[in-house]
Amino acid sequence: MPQGTPLTEAQALDWLRQLEDPGQRYYAAWWLGRMRSKHQAAVPLLIQALAERGPRLDPASGVDEPNPIARNAARALGKLADSRAVAPLLKALESSDDGLREAAARSLGQLGALKARRPILQRLAPGPLVAGAPRPGTSRLMEPCKALLEALGALGWQEEDGATDREPLLEVVRAYVDHERPLIRSAACRSLLQLTREDCWGEQLVNLLLHSELQVRRAALLDLGVTGWRPAGSAVAQTLAENSLKLIALRGLVENSPARNRTSPSPSPEEIELLLAMDDLL
């Protein structure tokens, strides 16, 4: 294919089928997820790619990335909303590759796979001093805690297998609210806010909007947007961060709020205030 020519769905599927060129398979897995492919062959091929293992040399850093095709396949499967992906993603959650576990956890959360709650909790249960401890020689943690916490929040609280007590779940998540890394604290508060709708967790996220590090402020913005916690609107609009991210967060407050009336053709006064804040940033 000539350089610069856009990839088509048929070409992406062909690239994922072939086994000779890992680079093509890597890109095809990403493309099928990015374009939300609806082709009947996409999910089976991505599930096959999820089982692939092997490093890829990053030309920019010269460092081997473990299992890149499987990671891209895991990310793509979360975007295609197909329940056939749940079982293989649960298997990937047991991988020794923490990057693959990270991708699998996020996708399981996107898919609303309640069967993932227990294995995710088992990963987090050892606590911030074990699961959340730094991995020697790297900047990563022993477990991809941020992704695991975010997945629990995305799954929400629904009864499963006769379980009626959510306190053990909340206890595991609350342990990460005081983690030494603010990004983990932000993810924990985001998850707790989604699980409980208690304002105290939204207030902690708002406090992180004042953090001295831009990366932390960015994370808190996006976390607030995902939760739809509307009392954060004013603080989000005033955060020292890119307007593009503030717009994403404000849009999330409008669209993700449990209080949103999706049957009404007219926005509520609260939504109007958020929309005006968005206009001011444009």
TrEMBL record:
One CC-aspect GO term: phycobilisome
Superkingdom per UniProt: Bacteria
Keyword Metal-binding: no
InterPro entries, per database record: ARM-like, ARM-type_fold, PBS_lyase_HEAT
Molecular function per GO: oxidoreductase activity; transferase activity
Keyword Transferase attributed: yes
Keywords: Antenna complex, Phycobilisome, Transferase
Family recorded in the similarity comment: Belongs to the CpcE/RpcE/PecE family.
Protein name per UniProt: Glycosyl transferase family 2
Species name: Candidatus Synechococcus spongiarum SP3
